[in-house]
Each structure stands twice: as C-alpha cells, then as structure tokens.
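Subject: Sanity check before I submit

Could someone independently write out the structure tokens for this chain? I want to compare against mine line by line before I put it in a report. The sequence has 293 residues.
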Amino acid sequence: MLQLSQEMSGGSARLRVDVYGPGPVDYVLEDMNFLNYRLAAVNIEDGVTLAEPDIVWNQEGDKTISYDGKQMTFTGPWDPGPLQKVVVTMLALKMEAEGLHPFHSAAVNYRGKTLLFLGGESNHGKSMGQIEACRRGGLLVATETTVINEDGVAVMGSEDVFLKKRAKGTERADKAAPNKGVEKFFGTMPSWDDFDGPTNVDIVIVPAIDGNFDASTVEMGLFEASFQTLHSLQNYFLLNELLAPGHAMPIVDTEELRAKRAEFVGRFVAPRPFFFIRAATPQVLLDEVDKVL
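---
Independent answer below. Compare away.
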C-alpha cells in the first residue's frame, strides 16, 4: 500500500517521492542536513503537485535499485544514506532542468567581488579558502554548494561549512574529522556575516592547499577551466558512487543532458578569469588571491 507521497523542492524544482510498505511512514528522510549541505536549500512541501513520482520505494522484497530514464525505483530495505544520495541526484537533475546548476564550490564576496572557490577535480582547499576569505572580512555566499543560474549568478548557497554527521550507508573512514583542518589553520572557527541576495560570479579560484607547495598562481586556459567546471557539476550525479555492496548508482545521465551541460559550461567559463593557486596554507592562498585582485 502507498504509505507516503512527499514532495521536496530546491529553488523552483520539485521532486516527488512515493513510499510503499506494510505500515505507516512519517517521512522519507528524518534528517535533512545532508540535502541542505549538498543542494543549498531543500524544503519539504506541504502538498503534492506532481502527477507522477520521481522516486518510488517499495520497502518489501529483495534489495534492488533501477532507473528507467525518468523514475528511480528502490525495492527492499535501504539505509538512509543511499536514499539521501539518490534524492540529491534526482533533485539536481530537476534543478538543472530549471536552469539551476549546483556547483561543488564555496563562494565569498570579498573586496567587492564574488569569488568562487571551485572544488574541481581534486577538491583541495575550497572550504579553507572560503574560511580565510571570510576571516579577512568577506561575506559568505556559499560553503559546500553554490547554485548558479544560466546567467552565471549565484542564487543560492549552502550554509554549513562541514557535514558533521553521516547517515548509515555513507560511512567514510578516509574522511578526516572536519574540525581538524580548522584547528590546524585557524585555531577556532572564525565568525562572519552572510552576503544578502544573488550575486554574479566574478572570479573563479581552483585552490590546491598542501603543506609541501610553494605558492604559485597560474591563469587557466579555456580547456582546463571548462574541465574543472564540468567536474564540479558532475559531482552531483554520483555516477562513481556505490550505494550499497553490490549496488552502484544507476546511470542517470544522457548524451542530450551532457551536451547541454557542456554548452552551459562554455558560456559560464568564457567571460570569467580562472586561476589555479597552489599554497601551503589558506593564509598564503588568500595572499595570492589578493595579488590577483
């Protein structure tokens, strides 16, 4: 029996999840922190407006997952972690269709310009760069995810710097405790104010923080800037993710979507300077940013 039909939204995009099972279900996900961390601002809507579900979970039966090009279907007992990941992926697709592009990035309005610290391929320093820019007086636009529209304007941003708790099914022993980097570089977490309203992205920084690096700044060409940007966008579709032992994330991408995404990347990259900056610490990273500005 259908036990719950619930819609979630990210900006103007809406996602419907239907849950079937033997008994009452109060919610799809008890904890929304992961969704807000990954997609900036996800809301549970009061009613259902979509004619068909985007995700169906049949709680009984053997564990399976499948995607038919439109609908993701879970069967059997699934932990919250994989459910969270699939909601992120499916809602990211819905947001993309609305012209809202989640970037794996942090953003700060600093010295009158909005800087995007792009996670890119390696993801080495976006959060620490954001913290140091805010420590120097910058206003926070986004932490983990910056949602950017078709015109290159940051319209939404996540607020939590780190994911403090992982749901069952997303355990990662290889991830260091999030506060350790802050303790090493800053002692305690600095405080800052938020930037109010949408803001055009002026400059993109691809950071690489490592204690062995000498400081260096290189302006990136069109190909490598596009390469790093596409990596940032693809991060939300989790096509390299294992949801559970024996169950990979289904392929949700298509040639048409990839072509449209690449076209957007070209339009985003063309008018903006991109800089790859190596530095031993966030402080040195921002010293290099100051030189660019």
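---
OP: Matches mine. For the report I'm noting this point. The chain has seven helices and 17 strands.
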